[in-house]
Specification:
The chain is mainly alpha-helical. It has helices at residues 2-12, 17-24, 28-36, 43-53, 81-104, 128-139, 150-156, 193-209, 230-243, 246-253, 262-272, 276-285, 291-303, 322-332, 338-345, 349-365; strands at 71-73, 160-164, 175-179, 182-188. The structure holds zinc ion.
């Protein structure tokens, strides 16, 4: 068990056997034997590994009942192997924490992911993704307002969303797949929020569009994820419509416009967490502006370099609180003790205890 964990932590840190050996003064043959379970490292060596690999000591001893067995990614694109290994390490670690947290509850506080019944069942043309997105919003009681925390919304609907820091050179494009049969979406933790949200909504599109698409062009693979693919366009259309429904676009911009002020798009971006360019597409798709007006604005975006970097403050990365909430809830319901709660959160016990006391003191003051 320690061996598998060591292997995983080493891969997640992006180190070869030799590199880890150089940094720890343990020979690479010994490390290889530890990883294969042929030898057991001493506690001193484990402390050294933990320090070098950036994990806490108990990582090596975390119980097996939360072990994740099947992770499948639907697309890997051109991601370098080392980067994929690092991302995969994050996915395993966080997915395991989730599993462990949920297993504390006699009845899972999170429903299993299911596409609601009663949504439009076949999509023949692109415009119908509006209906699909509206149907899903309705089924999930989201109204037509901005969705403040899409990561937590999806998590609470049973999608495992993992934020990773492994993206050091901007080569990470997001990943989707399944973890032990549960839908999985991986995004960069520090990406601008509008990019996180569009990626999430696009992948949600894949989940709800599966089995519904009947396009005239033959050979559309429902699992394909290639740029320019008709299914990709549908998922992008779905993402925009889900993040900012037609009703909201018309409510903010009016039903028909000949021109738009770029500042209107800045404001929409910050209200709905959707890039200015995506808001511009929403205005076109909702019939507020015509193709010529859209093209004119699109040209302006190109001329000013806004297609690469949009003007104004970026939309901040999403904050997530659901995991922490469920840990404190488990503590509050007496399902777990303080030290286990601290371990699941990855916080030293002393620090966790102080955090907990502060919150209790704050609550008592009211
Ligand atoms: Zn896709």
């Amino acid at each position: 068990m320690i061996g598998q964990r060591l292997l995983r932590a080493r891969k997640a840190a992006g180190l070869s056997l030799r590199e880890l050996a150089e940094r720890t003064c343990v020979s690479h043959t010994a490390i290889s034997k530890f990883e294969k379970g042929l030898l057991t490292p001493s506690s001193g060596q484990l402390i050294e590994f933990a320090k070098t690999l950036g994990v806490r000591g108990e990582f090596f001893f975390r119980p097996m009942q939360a072990e994740i067995t099947g992770v499948e990614y639907r697309k890997k694109a051109s991601m370098p192997k080392r980067l994929l290994d690092r991302v995969h390490g994050d996915v395993l670690d966080q997915a395991e924490r989730w599993q462990e947290l949920l297993s504390l509850y006699p009845d899972s506080p999170i429903e299993a992911f299911a596409v609601p019944r009663g949504l439009i069942d076949t999509i023949h043309e692109e415009g119908q993704v509006e209906t699909l997105a509206e149907g899903l919003r309705q089924a999930w009681s989201l109204g037509a307002s901005p969705i403040p925390g899409l990561i937590d919304t999806l998590k609470s609907k049973g999608v495992r969303v993992i934020g990773t820091d492994a993206d050091d050179q901007g080569k990470f494009d997001g990943l989707a797949g399944t973890v032990d049969g549960v839908p999985l979406i991986v995004v960069g933790r520090h990406w601008p929020g509008d990019r996180q949200r569009f990626t999430l909504a696009h992948e949600l599109g894949h989940l709800v569009l599966a089995g519904r698409v009947v396009l005239e062009r033959p050979g559309v693979d429902a699992n394909a994820c290639i740029r320019g693919d008709p299914l990709e366009r549908l998922c992008n259309g779905f993402a925009g419509a889900f993040l900012m429904p037609r009703q909201a676009v018309i409510g903010h911009l009016g039903a028909h416009r000949r021109r738009l002020e770029p500042n209107e798009l800045v404001l929409l971006k910050h209200e709905y967490g959707l890039s200015m360019q995506a808001c511009l597409f929403r205005a076109l798709d909702a019939g507020v502006i015509d193709a010529a007006t859209h093209q004119g604005l699109f040209r302006l975006f190109s001329e000013r370099g806004w297609r690469k970097q949009e003007p104004g403050a970026p939309y901040p990365p999403e904050e997530t609180i659901l995991f922490k909430q469920l840990v404190f809830r488990a503590l509050g319901e007496g399902l777990v003790g303080e030290s286990k709660a601290a371990e699941i959160l990855g916080v030293p016990l002393g620090q966790f205890h102080r955090q907990r006391k502060l919150e209790a003191a704050g609550a008592a003051a009211h």
